[in-house]
Amino acid sequence: MRILITGGAGFLGSHLCETLIGQGHDILCMDNLITGRTENIASLMGHDRFSFNKYDVCNYLHVDGPLDAVMHFASPASPQDYLELPIATLKVGALGTHKALGLAMAKGARFLLASTSEVYGDPLVNPQPESYWGNVNPISPRGVYDEAKRFGEAITMAYHRYHGLDTRIVRIFNTYGPKMRTKDGRVISNFIVQALRKEPLTVYGDGSQTRSFCYVDDLVRGIVSLLMAPNENPSALEDKAPNQQDQPSSDLNIHSPFNIGNPREVTVLEIANMVLAHTGTTNPIKHCPLPVDDPKVRHPNIQRAKTWLKWEPHITLEEGLTKTIKYFQEIL
Amino acid sequence: MRILITGGAGFLGSHLCETLIGQGHDILCMDNLITGRTENIASLMGHDRFSFNKYDVCNYLHVDGPLDAVMHFASPASPQDYLELPIATLKVGALGTHKALGLAMAKGARFLLASTSEVYGDPLVNPQPESYWGNVNPISPRGVYDEAKRFGEAITMAYHRYHGLDTRIVRIFNTYGPKMRTKDGRVISNFIVQALRKEPLTVYGDGSQTRSFCYVDDLVRGIVSLLMAPNENPSALEDKAPNQQDQPSSDLNIHSPFNIGNPREVTVLEIANMVLAHTGTTNPIKHCPLPVDDPKVRHPNIQRAKTWLKWEPHITLEEGLTKTIKYFQEIL
What we know:
The structure is a homodimer.
Chain A (H helix, E strand, L loop, with lengths): L1 E5 L4 H12 L3 E6 L18 E5 L14 E4 L6 H6 L1 H22 L2 E7 L26 H21 L3 E6 L2 E2 L10 H10 L4 E4 L5 E3 L1 E2 H13 L6 H6 L17 E3 L4 E3 H12 L5 E4 L14 H7 L7 H15 L1
Parallel strand pairs in A: 1-2, 1-4, 2-3, 4-5, 5-6, 6-11, 7-10, 8-13
Antiparallel strand pairs in A: 9-12
């Protein structure tokens, strides 16, 4: 397949490029490099099935030749980034998604949107099934990311319903692993970098808020499964779906969103202590004020991915942390 | 003041044009006429302080000369329209709002966004204060309007926070009155047209869902009050706000959203019976299937508008219905 990946030089995008190149596909990587980094794709440069174009997907979008799939991963994605780049975040979520959908239409390509667990906001239901509508403050500072992604889902579904475009939506929960930036601002990279630098680990609030951390290899495998899944409605599976009461039957198709994440829920304080233990450090923990509208819980219900994609994560938090700590030890 | 009104040939936009022309302002009306109608502004054509430009606000936006305010009212706004025009609705909510904000920035103009009670979705809190985050299904067919407006609010707040633009957001609840289209698809115009045509009144579901109907003159007065309200924080008022527990203090400024609507909550069945009584007809009521994700309740908490704008509606539902029925009798 010939696949365009927007945001292909970002943390997740670059892992997708690598995996899909490894599977024999042709990859066109597009990134404006505002949060993506060429280091992430350095090992692919010069590969005859890989090309890179530094480009802002909010502009007029043209690609020579056929395309089989468009994967829209371009967006600032860590709270630190999108609070600093609110308008760029809103633009790429709305205008960028619109342009990428238009390109997929023009090429007759399948479209996959990188959405996020942030569409659930500060959820009142835990774990979150895909049928949960979310609890998002549209006017808060962090609303820029959440609403941009919700808009992205709405316009993706509109292209599917109105234009018959073959679309997929993945709601990505917290992910970690090699290629995260040292200054990314996300909790696991923060903790590891702080631990390795012998600095205090900064925990926001009392650390009782929970997250579910998925190792990047598991996540990428889930996303590729969703991209490659056939369009046919596996009606045999539908009958067996154990969580059917949460999933209105109209939602039970390949085009409605899939949670991809690790269902092991840990508190932020637990993860801080795990990082200390795995790095063999005894740095203190420093508590900082909780940001506005920080979600209190996050825990994916992954029944849909299990049933439809036969996917579930395999890498334990302990293994994943060990690999990620090794990566940061090498680059620091 | 010199004011641009996008969607100025629509139901609300054209009432705004009339009122603001009547108050001595210069009005530039812009509309692509996909749901707006030149009949709505016919009486203003040729007025030396009024000009009309048939234009899609999603395109490059340029206006000669200075502007004091940009009021962004362009959007399909009845469920019938936005279900038929999902992508146009998403575009004008995201790209159109972005262009209109950019123009306001370039001109140093105040910006007012027409948002909607639809940002509350199918609310789990009744009545709805502005601090309620809403219950919206991002991927449902009617999500296109709700998410477009939520995105519009998010980008408006981002321009305010990031660029210091003087912005206002009005969340408009159900409104009715002269200039609604006979085929608008909204409940009061539907019922009146059906009653006058001796057709059965179509009630969706059992009619127990509630709405709060504001007569258009009251609504326009509220919006103009918000547009003209000074930027200063009336801290004296803030202390007196009776509903403060619902309104985090950071939200208590003129830039955060204002509900404008009539707090009298009636069921759809009640309004059907009132229309029958006021038109002196005895047509039957025909029940139809409830659309997907139709909100069960809608009732504005208008304390913020009362406190900050000294605004509340004056026209009773009985008076408003009489005026609206008279309008439809004349045009049918």
